[in-house]
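User: For this week's homework, look closely at the record that follows, marking any run of repeated tokens, and judge whether sequence predicts the tokens.
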Amino acid sequence: MNDKAISHSDDIAMLIWGAYRHPDAKVRTSLRNTHDEWLESCQPLYSRDQVRNTFLKARGTFLEPYSFPGEVMEEAISLAQAAFSKAYDAQRIYVANVAKDEPTRGLVLTAGLSFKCVERYALGNFRKAPKTAWSLKPLLLPTANGRVPGLQKSARLYCDDEGFDVRFCWPGDSELPYGFSSDLASHSRITGIDRNFNNLGVSLYEGKSKHRFSLRTTSPESMIRFMGLLEEERELFIDAEDSSGYSMCVQLHPVPEGRSSTKLPTRVYTKSAGLPWIRVMPSTMEGNAPKITTADKVALAKLFPCPLQWRDEIKPILDAS
């Protein structure tokens, strides 16, 4: 998947969620206007009523009924209109069933507005969920306060006689590949410092719990050097290969006097279609990403992880707020 497609996927996921679910009515209205303008620019092949009528016919089976309540129906219609348009020319979308927590159940809608059931019972019309289709997984949608299932963001600095220790939790709940800690160590950095972790005298270790990691000083000299970085309030940028889906920015600062640890402000950014509730396959039309305003990007970023390509645009505003 190319960078253009990655941008489209996370921008579209943010836009569709915000247009229907953002808790601030003013922001929601602004995003809805952007949503409607973007959909119109895609030149969808079907009206919302045509897609809605197709979804209403898809009731599943007695054993595995389907339902598309409230905003889920509207979000599924928006995704279908964008997918089946002159801009994207997708062949099918997959909408997971909101009534079940099994990710392999749902509905496949084709570009001709015909649908097929994805079920697990032997007596049902069994099909595996397609891996190449656009997808909407309602059970992974953010909650009203912006909490995204499986996307943790936490970091804490510890200080004792042995040195400094930054402990953080890598976002996501998927299985990490072998050697992931080495991958993090080679791709991460402290901003403004043109030296890798080894040259700074710090090492990255994998924790005992799932997705837990620790960045520690390894000598008295590295402690002194790291203390200077804390005083300068440098930013720790934690990254891995593009396939990882996420990056983290941890704001360093000293441990308050009289305490042995402190929480560090942490922001998670997505990449490689990292947002899990909507996935978009590559676009066939250049330059058709939604044009979300800076103010709306900031409003979305205050709730949950946002695309990494937004970082330079919104970071100064977020830091000042």
